[in-house]
Design goal:
Length: 115
């Protein structure tokens, strides 16, 4: 079993910043990738940012230049620094970890950006 624990969500004004963290624990052999999805009500889930064990990073277009993903392999932890937040960033953010062909998910953390 693999558990993902997220933290760092909250309420912030537009233009502000938040930092999300996600730590993986349990039966971890090798994490191939970690990242964050988000899904607003009535919308499809979208990949916000991801980082692979090889250091490859991808961002969803709307967050490029504002969000930064980073990882600490020793701690099996991934971070998402979110700057210049906009009201449209408001939703629940879900951390994931991909280990071989399996996907594991965090419980989700709410991010609310007020205008």
């Amino acid at each position: 079993q693999v558990q993902l624990v997220e933290s760092g969500g909250g309420l912030v004004q537009a233009g502000g910043s938040l930092r999300l963290s996600c730590s993986a624990s349990g039966s971890i052999s090798s994490i191939n990738a970690m990242g964050w999805y988000r899904q607003a009500p009535g919308k499809q889930r979208e990949l916000v940012a991801s980082i692979t064990d090889g250091g490859n990073i991808n961002y969803e277009d709307s967050v490029k230049g504002r969000f930064t993903i980073s990882g600490d392999n020793a701690k099996n932890t991934v971070y998402l620094q979110m700057n210049s937040l906009k009201p449209e960033d408001t939703t629940v953010y879900y951390c994931y970890a991909r280990i071989t062909r399996y996907m594991y998910w965090g419980q989700g953390t709410q991010v609310t950006v007020s205008s």
